[in-house]
Amino acid sequence: MGKGKGNNKPGSKIPSTVPQKDHYSRISYLLNATNHFTSSSKYNILSRGYARNLDLVAKKTVIKLTPALKRSLCKKCNTFLIPGLTLTVFIENESKSKASHNDVLVHQCLYCHSKKRFPIGSNRDYVVFSERDDVKVSST
Ligand SMILES: [Zn+2]
Predict the structure, then answer these.
(1) Is residue 136 part of a domain?
(2) Which 3 state secondary structure label does DSSP give 83?
(3) Interval between CA 137 and ligand 1 midpoint (Å)
């Protein structure tokens, strides 16, 4: 089907070559470096610099990051968010009736104290589009 040299079976949807492979590998490297340097407070600024580079490379090359990866970076200060280390997670309900369908999952960055809010009460079984079973691509 494709022009690539890969040994894909006919009819398989996985392409034999990955377009913009160098950009993907650069993003992967920056993510690993960010993750590594976040764990030590000594290199906090370096970690945020790598995370900022990661975001800029993704934007410049128009590569879509997965929602899980996007949610692991603070939009305000580019801190790599690790629960318990650089992130607190709690459920908030500011409605008067305290009904469970008004629950909001809050991710708060411990560095800049900015919050991301996810309304989880309205649909408890919500799954991000990229993580749905009918969309997932198996790696085998
Ligand atoms: Zn932050």
Answers:
(1) no
(2) strand
(3) 32
Q: Is 40 within the bounds of a domain?
A: yes
> Which residue is associated with the tokens 């709690």?
90
Structure tokens at 47: 């970690």
Distance from Cα 130 to the centre of ligand 1, integer Å: 25
CA–CA separation, 14 and 4 (whole Å): 11
Residue 63 has φ and ψ, to the nearest 5°, of -100, 130
Question: What 8-state DSSP symbol labels residue 34?
Answer: H
How many domains does the chain fold into?
Answer: 1
| Residue 105 alpha carbon to ligand 1 centre in Å | 17
Residue 111, in any domain of the structure: yes
Domain of 57?
Answer: 21-124
Q: Is residue 12 part of a domain?
A: no
Contacts of residue 118, defined as CB under 8 A and 6 or more positions apart, other chains included, come to: 104, 105, 106, 107
**Residue-by-residue pLDDT tens, the chain, 140 positions:** 444 444 555 556 777 787 788 999 999 999 999 999 998 878 989 999 999 999 999 999 999 888 889 999 999 999 999 999 999 999 999 989 888 888 999 999 999 999 999 998 888 788 877 778 777 665 54
